[in-house]
Amino acid sequence: MEIIEYDWVKQTRHILLAQCRMLSEQELVAESNFGFLSIKATLVHIAGCYHAWIGSFLFTQTKTPIRTKEQAASMTFDDIEQYFEEADTYVAKLFAQGVNWDEPIEQELPWRADSGIVRKSLRQLLMHAVTHEFHHKGQVVAMLRQLGHAPQNTDILGLE
Fold first, then answer.
1. Is 109 buried (19+), middle (13-18) or exposed (0-12) by CB count in 10 A?
2. Cα 73 from chain centroid?
3. Cα–Cα distance, 36 to 31 (Å, whole number)
């Protein structure tokens, strides 16, 4: 993946976040019967993946990258957007370093004691975070539909 491709990821995320920002708190936390049960919880979970695999596993910036249910529930929409911005900072650092994308990193998960050694390349970590985001973005779009909203196009092919 190159930085232009990650820019597309951010652009489609911006479209979704802008639409979600317009929702009431009641709509953000309305429970669905799939995914992380609400739009708010799912958005926090999406950003948390970047924090875990890039910010924590790769850069060891934190040992607690994933928000608890209680922490996620207390986040404002500004907090959620900030959580994504921090994730983007980790990814930008990854691109800026000119790293070997295929060299495996072997270590325990900083956020899970006794996880055992995990062996992943930078390419795998970033691809996982991006595909994870798009998987859950689809769930958020479905939740928007359940709430009676017409989701905007968040497909990369929809970008100009």
1. middle
2. 16
3. 9
Q: Is residue 50 a contact partner of residue 13, using CB atoms and an 8 Å limit?
A: no
Name the packing angle between helices 3-21 and 39-50 (round to 10°): 160
CA pair distance 112, 116, nearest whole angstrom = 9
Q: Provide the mean pLDDT of the chain.
A: 94
pTM for this predicted structure: 0.95
pLDDT above 80 (res 99) = no
As a whole number of angstroms, the distance between CA 104 and CA 128 comes to 14
CA distance 52 to 144: 26
What is the reported pLDDT for 159? Answer: 84
- The answer to whether residues 120 and 104 touch, using CB atoms and an 8 Å cutoff, is yes
* Radius of gyration for the alpha carbons in the chain, expressed in angstroms and rounded: 16
Nearest to 152 by CA among 135, 137, 136: 137
Dihedrals phi, psi of 81, to nearest 5 degrees: -65, -40
Residues in a beta bridge with 77? none
Q: Return the amino acid letter for 143.
A: M
pLDDT higher than 90, residue 114: no
CA torsion 39→43→48→54, rounded to 10°? 150
Q: Which amino acid is at 106?
A: E
Residue 140 CA to residue 35 CA, distance in Å, equals 9
